[in-house]
């Protein structure tokens, strides 16, 4: 059976399982699972950065299967996130992760005016976080002491598509100009010569001077946190798709080449939490593998070696880290939110989202949530 047939077979099994999971998950916004069942961040963490991914899963499944159940759950989550839009302290650089898979996906589906408004409000807020001194989008908020005013992180490359979308639908170039300037900054300060990425960069918010990097969720300062590498790989690829800038495409390839090289150093397992973690540490992050697979499939349109690497990652995940048990809500296990987390073999909703997106890409059935509907030439 070829890779497309296997992907289709796996997607059908996933959809069958998730039709049951979705039915028992009405009214919630999950992040992880406890004893195999989803938690609910809508109760106490409505501003949590992952709150758009379950909605994105529902839109992908709706477009794949046509089942109204998935649309209903996606719309419910979109409406719940209005609480976040009205809380200034809860708006941060992750607006793309929250409103691209929900409001923007809805708008792309049927042109909903309310969803358009939500997406533009989120994009305006994200654009307002741009610091022209240093050309970076500020990551996090603080309590008013300015302690995080100069902080940017590699994850934000994946939020830039919200700004590209806003420019596309409003014919206002300022959104994409901010996104491009941030991507150009990340290219300069966040991507090392060997193609690996730093997680956190700290700038002087007044002068724009780059001060130092921090290890963040990785093993140590100077190490290669694998989810950060995946954000960079897919994020620069998406910037290249949206803008056509060859520099962003070359950066994506540089990061991908390093990712593929590092994969060969861990042949006995999946993707580690950090490529520089000690080799006697066997902690993995399946979410990093799924995110990287999405970027590699897109890069595979330029060079087949990237497509082959993506298929290898997906084969490993589907054969070794995928739960199709109807009694569990999650798909992928052995994820990690941070190298230093005290929870091992976690499940994470964004791991499941990007697995679905990657499999749908393989069979040319993905709904363009992070990409433009028509790719830039």
Topology:
Blueprint: H1 3-23, E1 33-34, E2 37-38, H2 53-65, H3 68-80, H4 82-85, H5 95-110, H6 113-127, E3 130-131, E4 136-137, E5 151-153, H7 160-170, H8 173-189, E6 200-203, E7 210-214, H9 226-243, H10 246-263, H11 286-299, H12 304-320, H13 349-362
Antiparallel strand pairs: 1-2, 3-4, 5-6, 6-7
Helix pairs in contact: 1-13, 2-3, 2-5, 2-13, 3-5, 5-6, 5-7, 7-8, 9-10, 9-11, 10-11, 11-12, 11-13
Low-confidence stretches: none
Radius of gyration computed on alpha carbons: 19 Å
DSSP strand tally: 7
**What is the oligomeric state here?**
single chain
Helicity level, as a percent range? 40-55%
Average of the residue pLDDT scores: 96
Structural class: mainly alpha
Strand content: 5-15%
- The string of secondary-structure elements, in order, is HEEHHHHHEEEHHEEHHHHH
- What is the approximate shape? globular
| Biggest sheet details | 3 strands, antiparallel
Q: Tally the helices.
A: 13
The first-to-last residue Cα distance is: 33 Å
Description:
By secondary structure, the protein is mainly alpha-helical. Helix content is 51%, strand content 5%. The protein has helices spanning 3-23, 53-65, 68-80, 82-85, 95-110, 113-127, 160-170, 173-189, 226-243, 246-263, 286-299, 304-320, 349-362, and strands at 33-34, 37-38, 130-131, 136-137, 151-153, 200-203, 210-214. The strands form 3 sheets. The protein has a 3-stranded antiparallel β-sheet, with no helix packed on it. Strands 1-2 form a two-stranded antiparallel ribbon. Strands 3-4 form a two-stranded antiparallel ribbon. A hairpin with a 6-residue loop joins strand 6 (200-203) and strand 7 (210-214). It is globular, with a radius of gyration of 19 Å.
